[in-house]
Amino acid sequence: MDAIVVENLTKHFRKAYDKTLKGFFISVAKRESRYEEFVALNNVSFSVKKGESYAIIGKNGAGKSTLFKVLSGIISPDSGEVQMNGKVAPLIELGAGLSRDLTGAENIRLNCAIFGLSKARIRDVYDSIVEFSELEDFIDTPVKFYSSGMKSRLGFAIAIHVDAEIILIDEVLAVGDKDFKKKCYTKMEELRNEGKTLVVVSHSLKPLRRICDRALLLEKGEVKDIGSIDEILDKYESEKPKKKKTKGA
Amino acid sequence: MFADIMKYKELLYFLVHKEVRIRYRNSIFGFLWTLLEPLGLMAIYALVFGEILNKNLVKAYPLFILMGLIPWTFFNNTLRRGTKALSGNVSLIKKVYFPREIFPITILLANLVNFVPAFILVFVIAMFTPGLHLQWYQLIYLPGALLLQCLFTLACTFLVSVLNVYYRDVEFIVNLMLRAWMYLCPIIYPVSLLGASKSDLVREFAWLYFLNPMAVIISMYHGIFYPKEAVTKIPPSMIIFVIILSLLLLVFSWWIFKRLNRRVGEVI
Ligand SMILES: Nc1ncnc2c1ncn2[C@@H]1O[C@H](COP(=O)(O)OP(=O)(O)OP(=O)(O)O)[C@@H](O)[C@H]1O
Ligand SMILES: [Mg+2]
To answer: Domain ABC transporter spans what residues (chain A) (predicted)?
Structure first.
């Protein structure tokens, strides 16, 4: 069975416009539409099998984070189907789901509650989250005083402990130090072996080869290519440095 | 709708707890502020209206003010904080999904937690104030008033919280409106004043006064100790009207919330 099925997903954003009364009258006077539409995701279809590790790659602004937000329900698509079979733990961009004013410990409890863990279960996983994140000394410090690496540690540690079947990881490891990254990649392999479904967005391609089975290349909101990880990454890497038009399939 | 939210009761509990605690974090008096705030306002009004303007409109005037001011503070603070219920939680809303109705509900419950002890305290003080008599039969209004207030407040909070995501003007409008609204409620004066007013204008339009749900609700609280000055002066049809209005408003704002919620994740 497939863990994630996405069919013909399309998402338009309204480009930020001048929302003031002045801006309104100016745009009325100029007779331009006040909403400039921008296609962030265009007819995206793919599916991820249960227990598979899937990479999504693409340039800045390709729509990877947007795709993750749609998958986790944060933004709703304009059209298309999204089917998630299993509990989803999204780790979207830095500081995923952490509340600035709360301490690390409170954030752990908050996030566990968001993911529907019972009080007893929260008590069970609390220690292992702290242990994995290696933040024992800072656990009672408000998260606003955390470094970005510390936030990503906490976010990652929470996401892997909330009993989710599908974990979406977007770029959170980019700021982790070498040891923590290594630990995370090992953990991700472990999770894969346990049969969890991982979807990873990353600009550091090397580790992806080790963790992922398949990959999707996103370009300007459209699916450019889907295939085995090595195949896609080879293509992506070969076209990246040269700025020639090597856009043959 | 409620089944969906009950699934998150652990989260709701946590958020309410956090809301109550965070508000008074880094303040010396802490939770005491729930009492100090209305007490301070009461002192101001009692001084200005009771002493300077010399209008001691009812027995134990400061206590009368407090009886109305504490429910009003509950409404006022819920709405003020509720305006930012969504727009103040950007980091959560942009990164994880759970029913966003939880945010306004949290604000309501947190303010309820502040309201109940303050009200009980005033109630107890009133019991021991000479000249005031607890009207036992009026006590039946108390749960009704509380429930009605919660419904009405929740409806308003749903509306302003989601609108404020789209237009931050809502925050300013709400703050301004609440000030005017307070004077349209029987807080510094009893409702009995309206019928006895010397002004024709006031007497003629007195019935309009009770279209304001908060006026009716506060009068219901007043009735417990001030029966002659409060709820008995309200036409019963108005109470029914306010109940229906609150329910309709709740359905309406729930619907608006659901609709506007769809794009909250991207515009916030
Ligand atoms: N809420 C929003 N409103 C309007 N436009 C948005 C919104 N969120 C994203 N966009 C636009 O959608 C496009 C895709 O953004 P997205 O964050 O998905 O890129 P990305 O692939 O994650 O890039 P990166 O590799 O830098 O993380 C960008 O052009 C961005 O400006
Ligand atoms: Mg991104």
So the answer is: 4-245
State which residues form the domain around A226.
Answer: 2-86+165-248
Residues A30 and A151 in one domain: no
Please write the tens of the pLDDT for every residue from B143-180: 999 999 999 999 999 999 999 999 999 999 999 999 99
Residue A248 has pLDDT above 50, yes or no: no
Give the CATH number for residue A187.
3.40.50.300
ipTM of this complex? 0.86
Are both A82 and A203 inside the same structural domain?
Answer: yes
Task: Count the domains in chain A.
Answer: 2
State the Cα–Cα distance between residues B204 and A136, nearest whole angstrom: 69
In a domain, A91, yes or no: no
Last residue of a domain, one of A121, A139, A163: A163
Distance A64 CA to ligand 1 centre (A): 8
Nearest CA in chain A to B95: A97
Domain ends where: A109, A129, A163?
Answer: A163
- Per cent of chain A over pLDDT 90 is 70
Secondary structure class of B34 (helix, strand, coil): helix
Amino acid sitting at position B161? S
Is A106 in contact with B263 (Cβ distance < 8 A)?
no
Do A72 and A143 lie in a common domain?
no
pTM for this structure?
A: 0.91
Q: Quote the pLDDT of residue B194.
A: 81
Label residue A13 left, alpha or beta by phi (over 0 means left) and psi (-120 to 50 means alpha).
beta
**Shortest Cα distance, chain A CAs vs residue B169, angstroms:** 10
Q: Which residue of B has its CA nearest to A18?
A: B167
What is d(CA B193, CA B223) in angstroms, rounded to the nearest whole number? 15
Atom of ligand 1 nearest to the CA of B267: 1
Residues A194, A149: one domain? no
The tokens of B259 are what?
């609709």
> Which residues of B are less than 8 Å from A125 in CB distance?
none
Beta strands in A22-180 (DSSP E): 37-49, 53-57, 79-84, 88-92, 166-170
Q: What is the pLDDT of residues A8-67, one digit of tens each?
A: 999 999 876 666 777 777 777 877 766 678 899 999 999 999 999 999 999 999 999 999
Probe residue for ligand 1, chosen from B165, B266, B267 as the CB with the greatest number of ligand atoms within 8 Å: B266
Whether chain B has a CB inside 8 Å of the CB on A92: the answer is yes
